[in-house]
Recover the amino acids of this structure.
């Protein structure tokens, strides 16, 4: 590696370089297919597709695997099923799945493809008295708000795990302030097609009707197409995390690409490609835009096609991916 981004707070540190015997540019015969693991959500797949796209442009074969289980994805990095895991949210979102592993010993952070990935609550327009998660702990500011904190993710996600803890926190403070205050609840169930249809139907009924006065709060995140539709282009508003949200949701995350130390030292990827991966940056705004673009694409469109089309239409990304195909001397 030229350098790796190390430390959960983004401190730069040098990582072990590939063995000296590794050729700077392995020939086609020396290159094996690289296994890239991705979480199943569309925005994670789009961000991981950036890595897939770059590797293909650099002449590598890629086996792109979508894993529907968080524990399986991250354990796959260490048992050899996956060589690279892009779009891991650190330092907060996915850190629990790296428990017991040591940065720069068991795994490396190759580079950050996005920043400002975060968890938060969003509120419908009729919620006028509560602007932060801390406000939900004050019974005088929650009159008429639906007690259910709606979820937009599955049970294994950092968003759901953090939300459950937040609900416990704010309920304890509500009872201390007023023993007769209602408790907030959150229902954790399968995040399947039926659950998605119910939630989005409710959100659409509020978002599309200026006269709607429903007061609801939803555990949310960004970047993804929903952030763009309901907040950036819609009527919902982002609540600030406050001290309660910061304690449970953690710091804003970077979307980073992880590699096991064994893979880093294997010599499978040439030095110039490590450099390209290290400097690869897509950004949260582009990820959300591509996620929405893919959602609205014709059936049968792959995310690699969506990504390639987006790159061709945006000069900043197009320039990077063209430069990533230059000779190794360009990365010297």
């Amino acid at each position: 590696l030229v350098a790796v981004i190390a430390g959960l707070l983004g401190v730069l540190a040098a990582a072990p370089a590939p063995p000296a015997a590794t050729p700077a540019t392995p020939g086609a015969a020396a290159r094996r297919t690289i296994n890239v693991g991705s979480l199943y959500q569309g925005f994670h797949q789009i961000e991981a597709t950036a890595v897939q796209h770059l590797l293909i442009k650099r002449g590598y074969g890629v086996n792109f695997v979508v894993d529907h289980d968080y524990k399986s994805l991250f354990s796959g990095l260490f048992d050899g099923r996956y060589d690279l895991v892009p779009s891991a949210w650190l330092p907060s979102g996915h850190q629990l799945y790296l428990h017991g592993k040591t940065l720069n010993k068991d795994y490396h952070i190759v580079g950050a493809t996005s920043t400002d990935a975060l968890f938060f609550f969003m509120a419908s327009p009729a919620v006028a008295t509560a602007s932060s998660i801390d406000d939900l702990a004050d019974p005088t500011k929650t009159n008429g708000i639906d007690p259910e904190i709606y979820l937009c993710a599955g049970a294994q996600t950092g968003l759901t795990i953090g939300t459950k803890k937040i609900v416990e926190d704010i309920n304890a403070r509500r009872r201390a302030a007023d023993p007769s205050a209602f408790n907030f609840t959150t229902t954790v169930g399968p995040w399947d097609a039926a659950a998605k249809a119910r939630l989005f139907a409710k959100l659409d009924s509020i978002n599309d009707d200026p006269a709607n006065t429903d007061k609801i709060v939803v555990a949310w995140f960004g970047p993804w197409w929903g952030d763009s539709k309901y907040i950036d282009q819609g009527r919902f508003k982002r609540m600030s995390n406050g001290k309660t949200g910061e304690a449970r949701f953690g710091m804003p995350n970077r979307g980073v690409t992880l590699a096991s130390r064994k893979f880093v030292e294997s010599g499978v990827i040439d030095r110039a490609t490590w450099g390209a991966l290290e400097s690869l940056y897509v950004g949260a705004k582009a990820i959300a835009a591509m996620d929405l673009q893919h959602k609205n694409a014709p059936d049968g469109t792959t995310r690699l096609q969506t990504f390639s089309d987006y790159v061709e239409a945006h000069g900043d990304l197009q320039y990077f991916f063209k430069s990533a195909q230059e000779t190794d001397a360009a990365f010297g």
Summary: Residues 1-29, 326-332 have pLDDT under 50 and may be disordered. The two ends are 12 Å apart (CA to CA). The chain has eleven helices and ten strands. The beta strands are 4-5, 12-13, 34-39, 62-67, 84-90, 107-123, 149-150, 217-222, 237-238, 253-260.
